[in-house]
Protein backbone atom coordinates (compact mmCIF):
# COMPACT_ATOMS: atom_id res chain seq x y z
CA UNK A 1 0.00 0.00 0.00
CA UNK A 2 1.14 3.54 -0.72
CA UNK A 3 2.00 5.76 2.26
CA UNK A 4 -0.51 8.39 1.08
CA UNK A 5 -3.37 5.86 0.90
CA UNK A 6 -2.63 4.61 4.41
CA UNK A 7 -2.46 8.22 5.64
CA UNK A 8 -5.84 9.09 4.12
CA UNK A 9 -7.52 5.90 5.46
CA UNK A 10 -6.09 6.37 8.97
CA UNK A 11 -7.01 10.08 8.95
CA UNK A 12 -10.64 9.34 8.10
CA UNK A 13 -10.86 6.68 10.84
CA UNK A 14 -9.35 9.14 13.34
CA UNK A 15 -11.78 11.93 12.47
CA UNK A 16 -14.79 9.61 12.59
CA UNK A 17 -13.78 8.50 16.10
CA UNK A 18 -12.84 12.09 17.04
CA UNK A 19 -16.13 13.59 15.85
CA UNK A 20 -18.18 10.88 17.55
CA UNK A 21 -16.23 11.53 20.74
CA UNK A 22 -16.97 15.26 20.36
CA UNK A 23 -20.70 14.56 19.99
CA UNK A 24 -20.62 12.33 23.09
CA UNK A 25 -18.86 15.12 25.04
CA UNK A 26 -21.40 17.68 23.84
CA UNK A 27 -24.46 15.53 24.63
CA UNK A 28 -23.17 14.44 28.05
CA UNK A 29 -21.99 18.00 28.82
CA UNK A 30 -18.84 16.42 30.20
CA UNK A 31 -15.91 18.07 28.41
CA UNK A 32 -13.20 16.49 30.58
CA UNK A 33 -11.92 14.42 27.64
CA UNK A 34 -11.50 17.57 25.51
CA UNK A 35 -7.64 17.47 25.40
CA UNK A 36 -7.71 13.85 24.17
CA UNK A 37 -10.40 14.65 21.60
CA UNK A 38 -8.37 17.65 20.37
CA UNK A 39 -5.14 15.61 20.10
CA UNK A 40 -6.86 12.78 18.27
CA UNK A 41 -8.34 15.18 15.73
CA UNK A 42 -5.19 17.25 15.22
CA UNK A 43 -2.62 14.42 15.23
CA UNK A 44 -4.93 11.90 13.62
CA UNK A 45 -7.10 13.78 11.16
CA UNK A 46 -5.16 16.96 10.33
CA UNK A 47 -1.55 15.72 10.49
CA UNK A 48 -2.17 12.36 8.81
CA UNK A 49 -4.13 14.00 6.00
CA UNK A 50 -1.32 16.53 5.48
CA UNK A 51 1.28 13.72 5.37
CA UNK A 52 -0.90 11.99 2.78
CA UNK A 53 -0.99 15.10 0.57
CA UNK A 54 2.78 15.51 0.82
CA UNK A 55 3.43 11.86 -0.10
CA UNK A 56 0.93 12.05 -2.97
CA UNK A 57 2.90 15.07 -4.29
CA UNK A 58 6.10 12.97 -4.24
CA UNK A 59 5.24 9.68 -6.02
CA UNK A 60 8.79 8.30 -5.73
CA UNK A 61 8.67 8.74 -1.95
CA UNK A 62 5.06 7.55 -1.69
CA UNK A 63 6.04 3.96 -2.56
CA UNK A 64 8.98 3.70 -0.14
CA UNK A 65 8.99 1.62 3.04
CA UNK A 66 10.35 4.60 4.96
CA UNK A 67 7.25 6.68 4.16
CA UNK A 68 4.91 3.78 4.96
CA UNK A 69 6.72 3.21 8.27
CA UNK A 70 6.53 6.93 9.08
CA UNK A 71 2.74 6.85 8.67
CA UNK A 72 2.36 3.60 10.69
CA UNK A 73 4.48 4.95 13.56
CA UNK A 74 2.48 8.20 13.55
CA UNK A 75 -0.81 6.30 13.76
CA UNK A 76 0.48 4.15 16.67
CA UNK A 77 1.92 7.22 18.45
CA UNK A 78 -1.39 9.07 18.04
CA UNK A 79 -3.38 6.20 19.57
CA UNK A 80 -0.90 5.91 22.46
CA UNK A 81 -0.88 9.65 23.21
CA UNK A 82 -4.66 9.96 22.89
CA UNK A 83 -5.32 7.01 25.21
CA UNK A 84 -2.74 8.33 27.70
CA UNK A 85 -4.15 11.87 27.71
CA UNK A 86 -7.71 10.54 28.04
CA UNK A 87 -6.72 8.34 31.01
CA UNK A 88 -4.84 11.17 32.71
CA UNK A 89 -7.81 13.54 32.35
CA UNK A 90 -10.06 10.83 33.77
CA UNK A 91 -7.82 10.84 36.86
CA UNK A 92 -5.99 7.61 36.00
CA UNK A 93 -2.21 7.99 36.49
CA UNK A 94 -1.74 4.80 34.48
CA UNK A 95 -2.03 6.99 31.39
CA UNK A 96 1.39 8.56 32.00
CA UNK A 97 3.51 5.97 30.14
CA UNK A 98 1.11 6.00 27.16
CA UNK A 99 1.18 9.79 26.96
CA UNK A 100 4.93 10.00 27.61
CA UNK A 101 6.05 7.28 25.21
CA UNK A 102 3.50 8.44 22.60
CA UNK A 103 4.81 11.99 22.69
CA UNK A 104 8.46 10.95 22.17
CA UNK A 105 7.48 8.49 19.43
CA UNK A 106 5.59 11.30 17.67
CA UNK A 107 8.48 13.74 18.02
CA UNK A 108 10.95 11.19 16.62
CA UNK A 109 8.55 10.41 13.78
CA UNK A 110 8.13 14.11 12.98
CA UNK A 111 11.95 14.40 12.83
CA UNK A 112 11.93 11.55 10.30
CA UNK A 113 9.20 13.29 8.30
CA UNK A 114 11.14 16.57 8.45
CA UNK A 115 14.22 14.81 7.10
CA UNK A 116 12.16 13.33 4.24
CA UNK A 117 10.72 16.78 3.45
CA UNK A 118 14.18 18.36 3.30
CA UNK A 119 15.59 15.51 1.20
CA UNK A 120 12.78 15.40 -1.35
CA UNK A 121 12.12 19.13 -1.52
CA UNK A 122 15.82 19.85 -2.10
CA UNK A 123 15.91 17.17 -4.79
CA UNK A 124 12.81 18.65 -6.52
CA UNK A 125 14.13 22.19 -6.05
CA UNK A 126 17.49 21.36 -7.63
CA UNK A 127 15.72 19.66 -10.54
CA UNK A 128 13.65 22.84 -10.99
CA UNK A 129 16.81 24.96 -11.20
CA UNK A 130 18.33 22.58 -13.74
CA UNK A 131 15.22 22.77 -15.92
CA UNK A 132 15.04 26.56 -15.75
CA UNK A 133 18.70 27.31 -16.44
CA UNK A 134 18.76 26.63 -20.26
CA UNK A 135 15.64 28.81 -20.81
CA UNK A 136 17.32 31.75 -19.09
C1 LIG B 1 -18.70 16.30 15.26
C2 LIG B 1 -17.59 17.05 15.34
C3 LIG B 1 -17.07 17.62 16.63
C4 LIG B 1 -17.71 17.84 17.82
C5 LIG B 1 -19.17 17.57 18.19
C6 LIG B 1 -16.72 18.43 18.71
C7 LIG B 1 -16.97 18.79 20.03
C8 LIG B 1 -16.07 19.41 20.87
C9 LIG B 1 -16.34 19.80 22.24
C10 LIG B 1 -17.67 19.59 22.98
C11 LIG B 1 -15.21 20.38 22.72
C12 LIG B 1 -14.99 20.93 24.13
C13 LIG B 1 -15.14 22.45 24.10
C14 LIG B 1 -14.84 23.06 25.45
O1 LIG B 1 -14.95 22.39 26.49
O2 LIG B 1 -14.49 24.27 25.49
C15 LIG B 1 -14.21 20.36 21.66
C16 LIG B 1 -12.95 20.87 21.76
C17 LIG B 1 -12.02 20.85 20.75
N1 LIG B 1 -12.15 20.28 19.51
FE1 LIG B 1 -13.81 19.35 18.81
N2 LIG B 1 -15.53 18.54 18.05
C18 LIG B 1 -15.69 18.07 16.78
C19 LIG B 1 -14.71 17.99 15.79
C20 LIG B 1 -13.43 18.47 15.90
C21 LIG B 1 -12.43 18.46 14.84
C22 LIG B 1 -12.65 17.85 13.45
C23 LIG B 1 -11.30 19.04 15.33
C24 LIG B 1 -9.96 19.29 14.70
C25 LIG B 1 -9.70 19.21 13.43
C26 LIG B 1 -11.59 19.43 16.70
C27 LIG B 1 -10.70 20.06 17.52
C28 LIG B 1 -10.99 20.48 18.79
C29 LIG B 1 -10.06 21.25 19.61
C30 LIG B 1 -8.67 21.71 19.21
C31 LIG B 1 -10.69 21.47 20.83
C32 LIG B 1 -10.13 22.21 22.04
C33 LIG B 1 -10.61 23.67 21.95
C34 LIG B 1 -10.18 24.46 23.15
O3 LIG B 1 -9.03 24.32 23.62
O4 LIG B 1 -10.97 25.27 23.64
N3 LIG B 1 -12.88 19.07 17.00
N4 LIG B 1 -14.77 19.77 20.56
Topology of helices and strands:
Blueprint: H1 3-28, H2 34-57, H3 59-62, H4 65-89, H5 96-135
Helix pairs in contact: 1-2, 1-4, 2-4, 4-5
Give the overall form: elongated
Largest sheet, if any? none
In whole angstroms, the N-to-C terminal distance is 41 Å
Radius of gyration: 18 Å
Tally the helices: 5
Low-confidence stretches: 128-133
* Whole-number count of domains: 1
How much helix is in the residues? over 70%
Small molecules bound in the structure, each named once? protoporphyrin IX containing FE
Explain what you see.
The chain is mainly alpha-helical and 136 residues long. The chain has one domain. Helix content is 88%, strand content 0%. The chain contains five helices and no strands. It has helices at 3-28, 34-57, 59-62, 65-89, 96-135. The radius of gyration is 18 Å and the shape is elongated. Protoporphyrin IX containing FE is lined by residues 15, 18-19, 22-23, 25-26, 31, 34, 37-38, 41-42, 45-46.
Amino acid sequence: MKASSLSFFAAVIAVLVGMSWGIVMAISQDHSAMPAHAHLNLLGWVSLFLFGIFYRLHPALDVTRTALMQVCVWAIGTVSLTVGVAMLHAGNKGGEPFAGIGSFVLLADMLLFGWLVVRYELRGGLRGVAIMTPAE
